[in-house]
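Before the break, one more example. Copy the sequence into your notebook; we will annotate it together after we see the structure.
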Amino acid sequence: MRFVTGCSSEGLPAGFSAAVLAAGRGSRMGGDVPKVLLPVAGRPMVERVCSLLLSAGVSPLCVVVSPQTHEPVRRALGADVLLALQPEPRGSGDAVLCAAPLLRETRRDVLVACGDSPLFTLQSVRRLMQTHREREAAITLVSAILDNPSGYGRIIRKEAGGPVSGIVEERDADTALRAIREVNGGLYAFNAAFLWPALEEAAARSRRGEFVLTELVGLAVERNLLVEAVQCPAEEVAGVNTPQELEHASEVLRRREAESVPGRSQEGC
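Here is what the structure looks like once it is written out:
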């Protein structure tokens, strides 16, 4: 089963909203500053993520925060940014559900991004949006092929190049599944008609109200709905969980910015 949604007069995807997940403290980073507000190449991570989505034409955009990150994020992003509160840490699925009061009535398809994943490019976001609409999918996600996929959820397909049939987190994967090198990049596009009821169903299934966003892939497959994946370069899916990864992300972004300067040669970077 496929979903049919509209496009703009220019043929580009129309009517996407977005939820950016920024409720985590990031304890492995140390210090008192919420992880999503740490500067990467001079700008807070979550600000980079929000700017990227806005550049892709997303509106409205809602940032999901915790009681601890609410005020720091509001100060960093400005009073006009939509904020949704996740009162308790109950997983990424619950975080998106907390944005429902601000996004559901728009009836727009929803991009979901992590506030600590600042390396996606505008090209990849646009490809995600375009593929989602062209394929009329319930879910379209970004994936990547990694030399070392350790720590990432593995993408399951029944046949090479076919639709996604599941995502298995590493802790649940056997030896054969851990050998899969295609991983979930953590950037999604959801059909709105599927997303909000599916989140409510996943919440009802959960014993403690805690559930993760990847559970929705299983719900979609159960209903014979299409789940697609768009591959992007491996460097884009890298999140930031340690000081070393923060420095690496800064180096990547500085390199890109240097390469984008008109007249700047590759050798001078």
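The domain at 16-244 is CATH 3.90.550.10 (Spore Coat Polysaccharide Biosynthesis Protein SpsA; Chain A). Residues 3-13, 265-269 have pLDDT under 50 and may be disordered. Try to locate both features in your own notes.
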